Amino acid sequence: MTVPGPGAHLLVTGGAGFIGSCFVRDLLARRDGTRITVLDKLTYAGNRANLAAAEGDPEAAARLTFVRGDIADPGVVDPLVVAADAVVNFAAESHVDRSILDPAAFLRTGVDGVYVLLEAVRRETERAAGGERDRAPRMVQVSTDEVYGSVAEGWSVETDAVAPRSPYAAAKAAGELLASAYHVTYGLDVVITRGSNTYGPFHHPEKLIPLFVTNALDDLPLPLYGDGGQRRDWLHVSDHAAAIAHVLFHGSAGETYNIPGSAERENRDVVARILALLDKPWSLVRSVADRPGHDRRYAMDGTRLTALGWTNRVEFDEGLAATVAWYREHEEWWRAARGGDWDAYYARQYAVRLATSATADGPTEGG
Ligand code: NAD
Ligand code: DAU
Fold it and tell me: In 3-state terms, what secondary structure has residue 305?
């Protein structure tokens, strides 16, 4: 199987979301002839404005096509896969808290949608075997460290068993298990990435870092779940997107690659850092009822990805400072992202929690 290279035609599903749009912007900015078709349903989390930098650059725009549609719809997916050298699947419902409130959409996109993509890739793989196209399309299934479940100590390696604990994580595990089964059973050229907690510009304000930055800018309470001692390993979005591109171009068929971050931190330490950068007081932080089934810690080993030749570039303190500055400078973007069902979602997720909240213990380090 030949791996697609620069200049290929990529189908990027979910390319108007946080990480997918960074992947699209950064790959087009390499100016290596790569063509990209973005297929995105534009859910509340998808935002065409995330692609404005590419769409406003004539050279990049000429290599970018946008299609609004659902990855679970074969009528939309099939012809796009026929024309693609590779499929990079970012499309998913991505917020754990929403998966706890309403799991259905997570299964439709994360399981049915992945199945529709795999079936389309399978048909093209058969056509390649029959000499009807030069080469079978590669598919990158973008997955997450959450499939390992909570990791009390040590670091997850790719051969560890998956043990997802939220509907979101279970849907992601199902999607990647299907993808790897299609590699084994039908010989599809599939590679899987498991990225860690990602942060940076264009991150929807429902997630911890952008929620706390934007609430703090408005002097609103910051709802910290439980004791705030949960640990996440933070990965800058540009590193996550570039690592996925590296795996697309260099990864081995059938392989899974962890993409760890560069900074394992307790949530309350991240929050303290945000407040320091904004010069806002810790008194904004409220300890609220915990997320059900809250995973205490994620941590992955990155040896396999390092051996493939990838190393992260963005250091967390610098990346976080730049991210906070970006939100300060892009108020219009994040206020618009708080459109749609935001008020209803926010009330459902936080109203009771905030009404019954308590003073939060301070950070473990100076922050
Ligand atoms: P996001 O929610 O910002 O973006 C998801 C995008 O997918 C949106 O543009 C949305 O409109 C689109 N989409 C949703 N359902 C669709 C459907 N049925 N058909 C077509 N498009 C659809 O998510 P993100 O944070 O950018 O995450 C992208 C991928 O990376 C997801 O698969 C997620 O599971 C994975 N991931 C995210 C993180 C993280 O920290 N954000 C970490 C590891 C892995
Ligand atoms: O680890 C990778 C995953 O990271 C991705 O697969 C998910 O798509 C992505 O959303 C993210 O999941 P998390 O649940 O870790 O991210 P979130 O930003 O929702 O929460 C980060 C931590 O902060 C987590 O321990 C929960 C906590 N938290 C979150 C919110 C939204 C709070 O304390 N309060 C909050 O209001």
Answer: helix
- Distance, in Å, from the CA atom of 146 to the CA atom of 293, rounded to the nearest integer, reads 12
340: left (phi over 0), alpha (psi -120 to 50) or beta: left
Reply yes or no on whether 227 is catalytic. no
**DSSP of 171-204:** HHHHHHHHHHHHHHHH--EEEEEEE--EESTT--
Average pLDDT over residues 297-310: 98
Predicted TM-score (pTM) of the model is 0.98
Q: Kindly list the protein residues whose Cβ atom lies closer than 6 A to any atom of ligand 1.
A: 13-14, 16-20, 39-43, 45-46, 70-72, 90-94, 109, 113, 142, 144, 172, 195, 197-198, 204
- Known catalytic membership, residue 168: yes
Indicate if 145 belongs to the active site.
yes
- In the chain, DSSP finds a helix count (H) and a strand count (E) of 15, 13
User: Across residues 26-42, what is the average pLDDT?
Assistant: 98
Q: How far apart are CA 245 and CA 230, in angstroms?
A: 30
